[in-house]
């Protein structure tokens, strides 16, 4: 059974020269979910890992992080290699719609 997040998550972006990270927090819920990626070039990134704490399981945090990664990559004209099993499974469910941004 999927829990519905009581409020939309607050997703922030952290950046370095070679890595990036999205962090999701829910008001009133302990912990944070995150999705990390590596920058291969200006136009190619690798989704490395998605982690969601038990306190947020079933709230859609992993999907919210993947959607944000995809939206930002699309806006920047980047392609994503979905090495992370969660991002890969998320993208497979929408393979045709994400063909412009996912690099298999």
Automatic annotation (TrEMBL):
It holds the Pfam family Acetyltransf_CG. Its EC number is 2.3.1.-. It comes from Paracoccus aurantius. Residues 14-103 form the N-acetyltransferase domain. Keywords: Acyltransferase, Transferase. This is GNAT family N-acetyltransferase. PANTHER family: BSR4717 PROTEIN (PTHR31435:SF10), PROTEIN NATD1 (PTHR31435). GO terms for molecular function: acyltransferase activity. InterPro entries: Acyl_CoA_acyltransferase (IPR016181), Gcn5-rel_NAT (IPR045057), GNAT_YJDJ (IPR031165). It is an enzyme of class 2 (transferase). It comes from the Bacteria.
């Amino acid at each position: 059974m999927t829990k519905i997040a009581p409020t939309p998550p607050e997703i922030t972006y952290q950046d370095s020269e070679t890595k990036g990270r999205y962090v999701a927090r829910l008001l009133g819920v302990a912990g944070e979910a995150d999705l990390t990626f590596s920058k291969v070039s200006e136009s190619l990134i690798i989704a490395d890992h998605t982690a969601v704490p038990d306190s947020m399981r079933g709230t859609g945090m992993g999907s919210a992080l993947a959607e944000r990664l995809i939206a930002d990559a699309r806006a920047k004209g980047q392609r994503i290699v979905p090495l992370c099993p969660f991002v890969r499974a998320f993208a497979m469910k929408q393979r045709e719609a994400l063909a412009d941004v996912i690099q298999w």
